[in-house]
């Protein structure tokens, strides 16, 4: 979202007027007499004085305000899953899509952060230094007035960490939940938003998640998927209720429980035939 109002918003996108041109770049009107440089390399071709540019504002290594048309992976006030590029005496630096990397001070690390690994962080402006920084202590940035969830509710998930129990995920950017290992039946990419569902809300407020729809609609989807697989494999699949859960998960990306419910429903509807070597489409139908 572009800011079209005053004052200037550090760490966000702003629409600013070009007021001066020099060999090394343009100066933009940053309001209240502030002139902000956009280096020549980031200036769109053909830009002239009096035009407005949509730019991201940050501070360079000398704490000067700088504008760029590059788009960082996230802005101030957002969560992001970013990779550690370097370690310094101040903390670790994350790649967030700009020439200047994003600092996570040592005091804002949940645990020691390693080069090459990615972490979920929250981006904010440090009140003391007025610099854009990030924190891996995400709990303290979750809103106190987070929305109330209900079981079976569809939500947006940002999976970000593997644990012994499963995968931790940020829910609607306001709470943390867990997708348990036995609920993961498809590929999950850490750092990529996906759709999930609230499976259970525990008495202590902790939330269990699932990636599959809950209830009859999920089984209907599973039945449709199995039928499509049968049609794609000449009407036969070498699986039945005696097939191991591991084989079903590996080949069909579903739990054995859902598989058995689905083929039971298809058999009852006379859409398939179940034999010792697998399941067949009922061609008589």
Description:
- With 285 residues, the protein is mainly β.
- It folds into four domains: 13-68, Nucleic acid-binding proteins (OB fold (Dihydrolipoamide Acetyltransferase, E2P)); 79-140, Nucleic acid-binding proteins (OB fold (Dihydrolipoamide Acetyltransferase, E2P)); 154-210, Nucleic acid-binding proteins (OB fold (Dihydrolipoamide Acetyltransferase, E2P)), CATH 2.40.50.140; 216-281, Orthogonal Bundle (Arc Repressor Mutant, subunit A), CATH 1.10.10.10.
- It contains three helices and 18 strands.
- The chain has helices at residues 216-232, 245-252, 256-268, and strands at 13-22, 25-29, 35-39, 52-59, 65-68, 79-87, 91-95, 102-105, 118-125, 132-135, 154-162, 166-171, 175-180, 194-201, 207-210, 236-237, 272-275, 278-281.
- A five-stranded antiparallel beta sheet has the order 3-2-1-4-5, with no helix packed on it. It has a five-stranded antiparallel beta sheet with strand order 8-7-6-9-10, with no helix packed on it.
- β17 (272-275) and β18 form a beta hairpin.
- It holds the Pfam family WHD_CvfB.
- It comes from Arcicella aquatica.
Order of helices and strands: EEEEEEEEEEEEEEEHEHHEE
CATH topology of the largest domain: Arc Repressor Mutant, subunit A
Rg computed from alpha carbons, rounded to a whole number of angstroms: 26 Å
- For the record, the count of structural domains works out to 4
How far is the first residue's CA from the last residue's CA? 55 Å
Helix tally? 3
Mean pLDDT: 90
- The low-confidence parts are none
User: Total strand count, please?
Assistant: 18
Assigned CATH architecture of the largest domain: Orthogonal Bundle
Largest sheet: 5 strands, antiparallel
Tell me roughly what share of residues is in helical segments.
10-25%
CATH top level label of the largest domain:
Mainly Alpha
Any idea what the shape is?
Answer: elongated
């Amino acid at each position: 979202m572009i800011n079209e109002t005053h004052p200037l918003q550090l760490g966000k996108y702003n629409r600013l007027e070009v007021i001066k041109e020099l060999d090394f770049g343009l100066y933009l009107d940053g309001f209240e007499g502030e002139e902000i440089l956009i280096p020549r390399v980031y200036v769109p071709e053909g830009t002239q004085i009096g035009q407005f540019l949509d730019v991201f504002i940050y501070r360079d290594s000398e704490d000067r305000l700088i504008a760029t048309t590059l788009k960082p992976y996230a802005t101030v006030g957002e969560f992001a899953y970013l990779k550690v590029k370097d370690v310094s005496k101040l903390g670790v630096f994350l790649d967030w899509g700009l020439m200047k990397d994003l600092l996570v001070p040592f005091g804002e690390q949940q645990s020691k952060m390693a080069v090459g690994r990615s972490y979920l962080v929250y981006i904010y402006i440090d009140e003391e230094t007025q610099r854009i920084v990030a924190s891996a202590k995400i709990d303290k940035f979750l809103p106190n007035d987070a929305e109330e969830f209900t079981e079976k509710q569809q939500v947006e998930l940002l999976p970000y960490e593997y644990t012994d129990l499963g995968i931790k995920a940020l829910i609607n950017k306001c709470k943390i939940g867990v997708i348990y290992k036995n609920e993961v039946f498809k590929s999950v990419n850490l750092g990529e938003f996906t759709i999930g569902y609230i499976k259970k809300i525990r008495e202590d407020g902790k939330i269990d998640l699932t990636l599959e729809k809950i209830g009859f609609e999920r089984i209907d989807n599973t039945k449709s998927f199995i039928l499509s697989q049968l049609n794609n494999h000449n009407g036969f699949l070498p699986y039945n209720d005696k097939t191991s859960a591991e084989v079903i998960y590996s080949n069909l990306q579903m739990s054995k429980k859902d598989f058995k419910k689905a083929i039971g429903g298809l058999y009852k509807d006379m859409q398939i035939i179940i034999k010792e070597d697998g399941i067949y489409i009922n061609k008589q139908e």
